[in-house]
Amino acid sequence: MLLVELRVRWQQALSHRGLCAACGSGRVWHDGHRDRKASLRLIEQVEFVPEIPQRRLRCRDCNAHWFHPPEGITSRAHYQPCVVAHALGAMSAEPAASTAEIAAAHGCHRRTLGRWIERVAAIAEPAVLASAVVHEADAPVLPAIPTEVARPTAPPRTLARLLRALQVLALLEALASLRGLEPPALAHAAALVPRIPANAQCPRIRGDPPSQA
User: Fold this and answer.
1) Which of 117, 178, 118, 88 minimizes the C-alpha distance to 142?
2) pLDDT at position 198 over 50
3) Euclidean distance between CA atoms 209 and 38, whole angstroms
4) Which of 21, 45, 26 lies closest to 104, judged by CA?
5) Nearest Cα to Cα of residue 185 among 110, 113, 81
């Protein structure tokens, strides 16, 4: 989708009310809005997008308040899951490219890319995800998952964590597909693996917007 189309939808979404997620009340009121920034992948490239409007809502019955997420913005983190998933995939698909080159292509620092690898690898044990896929599909056949990564200059520990992160991503995609969820599956990690740590739902870096109630 083009950014201009997303901006139109974001503005239209400012009229959203819906029901209160806490108590189910329909007495939901607009309570202002805020702008946030994010980097997301659009038309095969990463875009830094400033001034993304978010509607703040409040329930008049239970006084809960929250921000309605704009379309395509699925994480509180600055770098959206579509960017993280693609960057990790590039680590495997482009063995000749350096970590710094891949990070630069995704608008981040190489250390940020390293943190993404660690955090995605920590989302869940691949064996646990594999079991969930088999159970969901009601079949003993697993989708193809990476078994090796060719990055000649990477130290063994980095290769091991990257391989695990790629396996986690592949299994999450399979599980999300079986449940009818749109890619990237990383955006649905919290729902797919309810017991994952809160800071592993969506990779975060220093400077990301704080969580909101």
Assistant:
1) 178
2) no
3) 9
4) 45
5) 81
- For residue 34, the one-letter residue type is R
> Hunting for tokens 């959206």 — which residue is that?
80
Q: How many CB atoms lie within 10 A of CB 60?
A: 12
Instruction: Indicate yes or no: pTM above 0.70.
Output: yes
Strand order across the 45-59 sheet: 28-42, 45-59, 65-68
Alpha helix (H) ranges present in 72-197?
Answer: 81-93, 99-105, 110-121, 126-137, 156-178, 189-192
Pick left, alpha or beta for residue 183 (phi over 0 → left; psi -120 to 50 → alpha; otherwise beta): beta
Mean pLDDT for the stretch of residues 23-38: 96
Q: Supply 137's token pair.
A: 């599909």
Q: Report residue 133 CA to chain centroid gap.
A: 19
Spatial separation of the C-alpha atoms in residues 174 and 169, rounded to whole Å: 9
Neighbouring C-alpha atoms within 13 Å toward the C-beta of 94:
14
